Amino acid sequence: MNVRRLFVIARAGLGLFLSLAMSFSSHADEASLRKNLAERLPSLAKIDEISKTPIAGLFEIRINGSDIYYTDADGNYLIQGSLIDLKQKRNLTEERIDKLTAIEFNNLPLKNSFTQVRGNGKRKLAVFADPNCGYCKRFEADLAKIDNVTIYHILFPILGEDSLVKSKNVWCAKDKAKTWNDWMLNGVPPPAIKCDASAVDANVDFGKKNRVTGTPALFFADGSRVPGAIDAKQIEKLLASVK
Question: I need a labelling partner for 168 at 20 to 30 A (CA). Which of 87, 162, 194, 225 fits?
């Protein structure tokens, strides 16, 4: 075996050793950080993940699926708030949460929705809404201005028993879209009709499991979500941005 080959083997072995050592150190540091945080803040929920941030010595702590906090390497401090990249003008925390809470459009409970098709219907938008939500009514007025879109209305009654009753009446109506628009835009209550409205209950269960906590909640074809009402200009901009 010549000297050159021995050097190559030795260098490869050293590289593997350093890689393993760094990996061990990383795991050891993470274990220590988890231990310190658990001791210093017993009320903190179980940590799902610890990861590095672009700032040296600052770590992201993820709990409850998509709740984000930040801490130092020793777990002496806990920071709640947004991490913003000033050079790129990006809210890194918001982007991270958007990624964590994204749902593939086809994984939404579309079978438990009713649709409205406007124009060519090529663009897609799903909306979780409560019939007694004032913001939802305002949003519906803006949504009425949008063309060339298929809207999937997902009844999501979370504001009380009357919301559940109205939602089930809408679901049982012969023309769901008209009944919904009559109520949301014109204040005409949906007539009381009985049918199998288990789809409405299924929507509520889906929302609870997927952190849909308010209405309206908008989902676009790329899986991104927008919590809360936005105006027609913003709706149009977001629909246009989906590739």
Answer: 225
